[in-house]
Amino acid sequence: MLFNSIDFAIFFPIVFVLYWIVAKNLALRNALILVASYIFYGWWDWRFLFLIVISTLVDFYVGKRLYGTDKLTKRKQLLFISLFVNLGFLIYFKYTNFFIETFVDSFSLFGKKLEASTLNIILPVGISFYTFQTLSYTIDIYRKQLKPTNNLLAFSAFVAFFPQLVAGPIERASHLLPQFYRTYKFNYKLVKSGLLLMAFGLFKKMVIADRAALYVNEVYNNVDDYGGVGYAYATILFAFQIYCDFSGYSDIAIGLGRTMGFDLMKNFDSPYISKSLTEFWRRWHISLSTWFRDYLYIPLGGNKKGKFRTYSNIFIVFVVSGLWHGAALTFVIWGAIHGAILMIEKGSLSYRKRVFAKLGLLKNTFSNHLFFGLIIFVIVCFAWVFFRANSLEDAWQITNGIITDFNIDRLFDKNTYLIGLKTNEFRVIMLSILSLYVIEYVHRKKNLVGILNKQSMAFRWFCYLGIVFIIIIFGVYGDRNVQEFIYFQF
């Protein structure tokens, strides 16, 4: 079920009312959450509910057994069961065809051609997200950082919690699971702030991301028809499309949880104002980057085993991150680009500081922030080409076209920047992106919700209704197909 669908517009009010009717009864409340979550997920394809149920049962009982034994061999065996089941599902559904194709292609490099057909496998929505969420539970118990729960109902609701089930944030049991043992009183201010956050998320998704997708899809799906300027426009718009699409989902998920009293972790923090790639990854998909830090980077040795191992670990983590995002070499290269640049960034830190100090670039000025911000944005956009391209050949054609076929005369040509869009649609995108920067800037400096709450009721309702009006009138809806969230495919 999509957050930006009529189905969800009917589903959520029903769940919301029932939730607050039974909110004081913990068992009933968690049962309602579980049933609602299974309906939410099963709306897409009920057959894949068994994957969530199996992962839930395996990790629940493995967690209890892990806590009940101190024998290292037994603990490793139990952890292996959890890893085997969860990663086994993930690898089969997501990577089987990728491994088959890679195996066949590797033989072609030596002049031999193998005949092998791929399998007709449907990728379950959100499998990468809930797999990582439930895996962190057993790993934390194995590390003796967490006590297991004895309440199967609460644990099942934690794994399947519908606001963040299919695209995160990837929550840790230490943060979210205890919230299923608490009862909540209806809090008007909390519900209102949750609804406002949901509206902001829908604005980012429907007004910016879905509209930008019209241009991006046209160019990236027909690369032979366009040149360097068209590629550049499409890539920049994709940068905002994927940010508004994914952070929009996170905003809706966090807002949904808030309307029911739950606190979900922040997943994005204005990443496009970053002054280094390291800072970018502290602001982008925070729940995933911290997951890889805690469960892959640190176990590999982190930065404790010398510079070579530190840089190698960084590179490995980002290549794996690329593979997590998608079963294609384009995603692996996307991760490798980030990993390589982070290695360079970390290795040249002291040298860059000396050079930047001489050039006066270390001063805390707007011009310096803008300078470094633009450099990082260009680097991130370069990597986004591989993330979005349908093939390596397309990615090369796009990057080569931007470098060698960038015709300045076409920069302001309507036939270039209105591909797949009407003039008003392009204006809406530009104005919305500008508004997004202003809103995020103001909110970072001062609490925007707090400022709004100090205004008169008439002004507040004017703003609330204005947001709804913008989403309905300017959002891609009705005559356009409702766009799925990009990260559903991961």
From TrEMBL:
<feature type="transmembrane region" description="Helical">
    <location>
        <begin position="190"/>
        <end position="207"/>
    </location>
</feature>
<keyword id="KW-1133">Transmembrane helix</keyword>
<protein>
    <recommendedName>
        <fullName>Acyltransferase</fullName>
    </recommendedName>
</protein>
<dbReference type="InterPro" id="IPR028362">
    <property type="entry name" value="AlgI"/>
</dbReference>
<dbReference type="InterPro" id="IPR051085">
    <property type="entry name" value="MB_O-acyltransferase"/>
</dbReference>
<feature type="transmembrane region" description="Helical">
    <location>
        <begin position="50"/>
        <end position="67"/>
    </location>
</feature>
<feature type="transmembrane region" description="Helical">
    <location>
        <begin position="426"/>
        <end position="442"/>
    </location>
</feature>
<feature type="transmembrane region" description="Helical">
    <location>
        <begin position="370"/>
        <end position="387"/>
    </location>
</feature>
<feature type="transmembrane region" description="Helical">
    <location>
        <begin position="6"/>
        <end position="22"/>
    </location>
</feature>
<comment type="similarity">
    <text>Belongs to the membrane-bound acyltransferase family.</text>
</comment>
<dbReference type="GO" id="GO:0016746">
    <property type="term" value="F:acyltransferase activity"/>
</dbReference>
<keyword id="KW-0012">Acyltransferase</keyword>
<feature type="transmembrane region" description="Helical">
    <location>
        <begin position="151"/>
        <end position="170"/>
    </location>
</feature>
<dbReference type="Pfam" id="PF03062">
    <property type="entry name" value="MBOAT"/>
</dbReference>
<dbReference type="InterPro" id="IPR004299">
    <property type="entry name" value="MBOAT_fam"/>
</dbReference>
<feature type="transmembrane region" description="Helical">
    <location>
        <begin position="308"/>
        <end position="325"/>
    </location>
</feature>
<feature type="transmembrane region" description="Helical">
    <location>
        <begin position="79"/>
        <end position="100"/>
    </location>
</feature>
<feature type="transmembrane region" description="Helical">
    <location>
        <begin position="458"/>
        <end position="477"/>
    </location>
</feature>
<keyword id="KW-0472">Membrane</keyword>
<feature type="transmembrane region" description="Helical">
    <location>
        <begin position="120"/>
        <end position="139"/>
    </location>
</feature>
<keyword id="KW-0808">Transferase</keyword>
<keyword id="KW-1003">Cell membrane</keyword>
<dbReference type="InterPro" id="IPR024194">
    <property type="entry name" value="Ac/AlaTfrase_AlgI/DltB"/>
</dbReference>
<dbReference type="GO" id="GO:0005886">
    <property type="term" value="C:plasma membrane"/>
</dbReference>
<dbReference type="GO" id="GO:0042121">
    <property type="term" value="P:alginic acid biosynthetic process"/>
</dbReference>
<keyword id="KW-0812">Transmembrane</keyword>
